[in-house]
Write a structure and sequence with these properties.
With about 625 residues, this protein is mainly α. It is built from 28 helices and six strands. A six-stranded parallel sheet has the order 3-2-4-5-1-6, sandwiched between helices.
């Protein structure tokens, strides 16, 4: 068994090394290959590369680092249950149940000042989520501190650490060793002589591919695990030279300020190396040289760096060469770039939509001019996939003609972005407390399955839109809804949904008779005989929306909220097209009951808290 680190400046070479390992040292026929990645997109890329290299890539699993560590802890703690109490989501509910009592105690002044009278339950829930996130990080990045808290330590008695230590002890009181810090300590004690059944439960090999950074605790766990199984890191390393001591210009200035005045530059022992790598590679530098290589003196870098470091004719190639050789040629004579070089381009666009359109045109030109380049050779990275994902669908998913279609897939989007039913469901929930505008309702009707649920056809949208415009429906359910708003508006019925529906229903029941009013209502006389069924479906849908919005005002227990939200899903969605989407939505809603049950939380809570939780769950 071994702890190995493979590095290269080319990601494809790392994938080839992984493939060679799989070929040379095959696992048992039915055993899965365990690969740890940082994103779904990286997993997809590895699958493509391994399939090309091996012909068949099957019986594997991609795990995120935390999932792997928790699985290991579960093996050495007798199962996964102990971790549940300090799972971030469950921990937030446990903290939420403790906060009302804690803020009344000595030492919790900062929390009491923030929460005020404590009546804002949404603010209290958001604070609980923030504290749970911090505690989760403490257990991973500062394990010694939280273990000290459990033995009575409290750090600085005048700072925030006092109430944090007390709250941590309250959370740990009834669940024992159930967090990463305690389970890691237990793991280190037992890994030297694990029971036979535990050894059988461990994978034979763990491959960590393209990991940019990991908490030191995780690396220590993996290093200890390597005494029983093979642990291989495949790390992208942009330079063949040692660059663990290079510093950026900003870091150089900070170091210089701390030195005594007059120290000669030569005596400062500051290595700038390549300025681009020094300024943008700090996270990778610290992980590679201060975490991975410091874990054991025997760990060796198995580096593979193609090229001889000279001869590039493109701008990108020259920059890569400078980083590879850790040099700065900025002060040297300008180098000649090949004519027509497009290896690096900057496109100044006026909007994100225009950026995607320019990219689409650029790729069409690239494929046309380079037949060897295929769509699967292209990776597009963006700082915010939630913003750019829909734009890619709009541009790449609707080409001007089929011969201009570029195949694509989008990775790492949240469930709310990928799940059409979830977006519509949130639009329905947002009617609560809102103005109930015509635009909100029309957005809900953009979902075909909602229309089908009420006997409407997607082709009826334009008819309904025309009715809304003609009857001047703007916002508000009825006069009482307007009068009940915090703005203190008068109970005016005109331009509300009720007033518009009354006009439509009268128009369907009475023959057109000019501009005569009936009981103060002007019938809408543009209805035709075939419109009756459409009007009936619209009225039924709107009545259900009115009822749904009003039903959300009542405080409920978590189990009651789960039942009510599931009834809303059943009441608005129907059809096979979103069967998977609604099933996923139902599973997320069911999690609310599971998390609160595991946390022992069964108090009443209002809709804002539930909506906040649901939004966080779907945005994961």
């Amino acid at each position: 068994m071994a702890f190995a680190v493979y590095t290269s400046s080319v990601l494809e070479r790392l994938a080839d090394r992984l493939a060679e390992k799989v070929i040379r040292f095959p696992l048992a026929p039915l055993e899965r290959e365990t690969v740890v990645v940082m994103s779904v997109g990286m997993g997809r890329w590895i699958s493509q590369r391994m399939a090309e290299r091996l012909g068949v890539w099957a019986n594997f699993e991609y795990l995120f680092p935390t999932v792997l560590i928790e699985r290991i802890f579960g093996i050495f703690s007798g199962g996964g249950a102990p971790l549940q109490a300090f799972n971030r989501e469950i921990l937030s509910w446990r903290i939420l149940s403790l906060l009302p009592d804690c803020i009344a105690r000595d030492g919790y002044g900062p929390l009491a000042a923030y929460l005020g009278d404590g009546e804002n339950e949404l603010k209290r829930r958001q604070l609980a989520v923030r504290i749970a996130g911090i505690f989760d990080q403490y257990a991973v990045h500062r394990p010694e501190m939280v273990l000290g808290w459990e033995t009575g330590g409290s750090g600085n008695p005048d700072g925030d650490e006092r109430w944090q230590a007390d709250l941590w002890r309250r959370l740990s009181a009834n669940v024992g060793f159930a967090h990463h810090a305690a389970l890691a300590a237990r793991f280190f004690d037992e890994i030297e002589a694990p029971a036979e059944e535990r050894s059988r439960a461990l994978p034979s090999r763990v491959s960590l591919f393209g990991i940019a950074t990991l908490p030191p605790l995780y690396v220590r766990v993996l290093h200890a695990l390597s005494s029983r199984v093979d642990v291989d890191f495949y790390v992208l390393n942009p330079s063949r030279e040692y660059w663990g001591d290079i510093v950026s210009a900003k870091e150089q200035a900070r170091i210089t300020r701390r030195m005594k005045p007059g120290v000669p530059r030569a005596d400062r022992h500051i290595s700038p190396g390549n300025p681009l790598l020094a300024s943008m590679g700090r996270v990778g530098r610290d992980f590679l040289f201060k975490v991975l290589l410091d874990i054991d003196e025997s760990v060796d870098l198995n580096g593979e760096f193609p090229g001889n470091g000279a001869g590039a004719s493109t701008l990108l190639g020259m920059i890569q060469e400078d980083i590879l050789d850790l040099v700065d040629r900025a002060a040297e004579t300008r180098r000649v770039v090949a004519p027509g070089d497009r290896s690096i381009g900057v496109h100044s666009c006026h909007s994100p939509m225009r950026e995607v359109e320019v990219l689409y045109d650029y790729l069409l030109d690239l494929f046309d001019g380079n037949p060897d380049v295929e769509p699967h050779d292209v990776v597009v990275m963006t700082p915010d996939i939630e913003t750019y994902g829909p734009l890619f669908e709009a541009v790449f998913g609707a080409p001007r003609s089929e011969n201009l279609r570029i195949p694509y897939s989008i990775a790492d989007r949240s469930m709310r972005s990928e799940n059409g039913a979830a977006g519509t469901f949130f639009a329905i929930l947002d009617l609560y407390g809102g103005r109930f505008t015509a635009a909100q309702v029309l957005d809900i009707m953009e979902c075909d399955t909602v229309l089908l649920r009420y006997g409407l056809d997607p082709g009826d949208r334009e008819t309904i839109r025309r009715w809304i415009d003609d009857t001047r429906i703007r916002w508000g359910i009825d006069a009482s809804d307007r009068a009940g708003r915090p703005e203190g508006l008068p109970p005016v019925e005109e331009n509300t949904w009720r007033h518009g529906l009354d006009r439509l229903l009268l128009g369907g029941a009475m023959r057109a008779d000019g501009e005569r009013l009936f009981e103060g209502i002007l019938p809408y006389d543009a209805l035709e005989g075939g419109d009756t069924a459409v009007l009936g479906g619209l009225v039924e849908l709107l009545d259900r929306l009115f009822e749904a919005a009003r039903s959300l005002s009542e405080a409920r227990t978590p189990d009651d909220w789960v039942g009510h939200l599931l009834s809303l899903v059943d009441g608005f969605f129907e059809g096979d097209e979103t069967a998977d989407d609604t099933a996923s939505l139902r599973r997320v809603i069911a999690r609310l009951g599971e998390e609160t049950a595991d946390a022992g939380f069964n108090g009443l809570m209002g809709f804002p808290v539930v909506r906040s939780w649901l939004e966080d769950a779907l945005n994961e």
